[in-house]
C-alpha cells in the first residue's frame, strides 16, 4: 500500500473519531479521582478536527519517505506540523457517559495524545527515526479506541466507497474495523477465503485476511457461528497455503472448547482459558472478556492481574493487525497496581517490549524521554 493511501486512512479514521464530538476544549492530566497518570479521561475533542486533518495531510509527504523526513530542508515544516498535531491532540474534556460505559478506553485515548507529544519532543531532540515511527503508529490508537467493546457506534464509510475499493483487501478490512463496520469487514474476509474467490493475493496476504476475519468474529463480535463459518470455508478451499491449513486446524480445536452459552465473567475463568490456550482464538476471547471485566469495580490485585493478562494476550496477537497495543496495559498495570507482584511482572514485560520495538530503529539506543519514563515507572515499584 502506498504512502498516500495509508495516510489517507489515518485521516479518515481521525475524522470518524472526531465527527460526533463536542466543541469545548479542556486540558487534563488527571483521572476522574484527581490522580495524575491514572486511566486518563476519554477525549471529547475540540472543534479542531479540521486542524488535525490539515496537519496530517501536510505531514503525509514526509512520514513515509525516510530520506525526506530526515532532510535538513524539511526540518522547519516538520517542526511546525508535528508540534501542531501534538497540541491539537492534547485538548480534551471528560465525558462521563463514555467513562461509565468503558473506563479502560481512557488510558488508550490519553496514550494517543502522549504518543504525538513524544513524537514532537523526539523530533526536536534529534531522534527523527523514533519520531517518524511514532507518527506512523497513530492509527493503532484510533482503531483500538473504536474496537474496545461490542457496544458502540458504527461510523459510515459509504461516502468513501470509491476510495475504499482502491485499497488492498487487507487494508479495506482494517479500515472497516476502524469504523466499527464489523459485518462488512467479516464479509470481505469470508469472501476472500472462499474456494471460488477471484481475490488475487500473495500467500501472506490471504493468511492476514483470514486472521483479521477471525478477529472480527471472535474478539469484536464474539460470534461462534460466524467463526465456525469462516473455519469451514477455509477447510473447503484446497488452494490455500499449507500453513493456513495448519493454523485452521488449531483454530478448530479452540472452537471445540468454546461454549457459547457460558460467559467468561470471572478472572479465574479467563485465567483458565489462557492457561489452556490452543490458538489465537483463545487470546481473542480472553481480550474480549478482560476488557469487559476491567469495566467493573475490582480490587488492586485483580486489576493488576487483569491488565497483565490483557497485555500478554495482545502481545501474542502481534502480527494479526495493527491493534496490538500491549504496552498500554503493562504501563497501566504498573501505575494502578505498583505494589503487587503483577506490577513487577508488567514492568518487566513493558521494558522488554519497549526495548524490542526500538531495537531496529537506531543504533544509539532508547531516546531520553523513553528512558525517563521507564525510570519513573520503576520507581513506583519501590
Outline type: globular
- What percent strand? under 5%
Main sheet summary? none
Euclidean distance between termini CA atoms: 46 Å
| Oligomerization | single chain
The average pLDDT score comes to 77
Radius of gyration: 21 Å
Low-confidence stretches: 16-48
Which structural class is indicated by helix and strand composition? Answer: mainly alpha
Secondary-structure element pattern, one letter each:
HHHHHHHHHHHHHHHHHHHH
Helix content: 55-70%
Short description:
This protein has 20 helices and no strands. The chain is mainly α.
Key features of this structure:
382 residues, mainly alpha, 0% strand, globular
Describe the structure.
The protein is mainly α. Among the domains are: 3-146, no CATH class; 297-382. It has 20 helices and no strands. The longest helix has 20 residues, at 105-124.
Write the layout of secondary structure elements.
Elements lengths: L2 H16 L30 H15 L2 H5 L4 H15 L6 H6 L3 H20 L3 H9 L1 H9 L14 H4 L4 H10 L3 H12 L9 H18 L3 H13 L5 H15 L10 H9 L4 H14 L6 H17 L9 H11 L4 H19 L8 H13 L2
Helix pairs in contact: 1-2, 1-8, 2-4, 4-6, 6-7, 6-8, 10-11, 10-12, 11-12, 11-13, 12-13, 12-16, 13-14, 15-16, 16-17, 17-18, 17-19, 18-19
